Amino acid sequence: MKKVVVVVGVVFIGLISQAQSVDLKRVFSDAEKQTDLMISEVPLAKKGNSALVSPRTLDAKGELELCPSFRWVSGFFPGTLWYLYDYTRNEKWKKQAEEFTANIEKEKLNAASHDVGFKVYCSFGNGYRLTKNKNYKEIIIQAAKTLSTRFNPTVGCIRSWDTMPKWKFPVIIDNMLNLELLFAATRISGDSSFYKIAVSHANTTLKNHFRKDYSCYHVVDYDSTKKDAVITKGTRQGFSDESAWARGQAWAIYGFTMCYRETKDPKYLKQAENVAGYILNNPNLPSDLVPYWDYDAPNIPHEQRDASAAACFASGLYELSTYSKNGKEYRKAADKIMENLTNSYRSPIGQNKGFILLHSTGARPAKSEVDVPLCYADYYYIEALLRSKKVENKVKIAF
Ligand code: GLY
Questions:
Q1: 8 Å CB contact between 72 and 115
Q2: Ligand 1 atom 2, closest CA
Q3: Could you say which architecture CATH assigns to the domain 24-392?
């Protein structure tokens, strides 16, 4: 009899802790305090350089490092401000979001890399979703036109980088996230050309970026003069050409889940499920589900984690949970990631210049941004918190 009571008690406690895993009210209140601090630090970190517009990371001395608008990360802090407004509906956050968003408007015309999607969609995209500001709508459409100039119909993809002689026509898995801008632009303009480019890019990526085990390469290089002409497959930010770079796998899940949302093409859903299976069954995934920077890093468990990959993975998993037959499993995993990020990876309040999460890794092979806070870790963490609430309330994830 005693045994039964104990077992029932354990199950009950298990259910309670599942439901209470992250106290959103408290975590958002903490995030607001950190963001207040960050906003107060920005003018000091500019050191008179008005081209520096958005928080990026902390430097080796723990000082706040800002970036100019042309950097791929410039839209994440404005996006985080929009998410704070989304949750709190406090006009203060709307005003801050508008100010930081306005700083990167010129990126709508910057065709120098694929990153226009990250920059403009996280900032103006979220702003438009929440305000329906007509000016934002025009900026999103213009940015999609700019991104479309990088599409090559022979390859079937948008080119990622121009400045790396090692590759002729490099396409990186990260580029999947830029497609969200194109889908949005078609939805708000009625111009289907953006949608067609996004679908072509997703199909070509699905065909060439994945291994048999559903892990993905970071960089696929194409000969843009011929159809179906892959030159090399490899990595830039992962451990080796045949390894699975953690953030790249997260981009893949998030990207193909978003493509399924926008197209309802079941092959995208299947691909997102396959990559989720690869990650969740990976023997090198730590028990707290916050990955090392590469699933094949050589010195696991003595390797740095990447909280940004965990946050992006959790956010993608929440959305995937709403479409997939494995939804319960994905939601449980996402909840566990969020619980662990919240309890063990957050900065103490009032420290780290206002960053929310610690322990991310940007580009380990270049020894750049290793075990630091990163603006995109915070962005996807806050996004995932909002998504967890939407999943709980059975509300549509986006648009
Ligand atoms: N898009 C670049 C990165 O994930 O580091």
A1: yes
A2: 174
A3: Alpha/alpha barrel (1.50)
The tokens of 244 are what?
Answer: 């699975």
Is the distance from the beta carbon of residue 237 to the nearest atom of ligand 1 less than 6 Å? yes
Where do the structural domains in the chain lie, given as residue ranges? 24-392
Per-residue pLDDT reduced to its tens digit, 212-239: 999 999 999 999 999 999 999 999 999 9
Residue 399, pLDDT score: 63
Find out whether the beta carbon of 57 lies less than 6 Å from any atom of ligand 1.
no
Q: Are the CB atoms for 53 and 104 separated by under 8 Å?
A: yes
d(CA 252, ligand 1 centre) in Å: 12
- Hey, how many other C-beta atoms are within 10 angstroms of the C-beta on 363? 15
Query: So what's the pLDDT on residue 1?
Result: 35
Candidates 166, 163, 161, 156; CA nearest to 114 is 161
pLDDT at 397: 87
Which of 167, 169, 119, 171 has the alpha carbon at shortest distance from 143? Answer: 119
Q: Could you say which residues of the chain have pLDDT below 50? A: 1-20
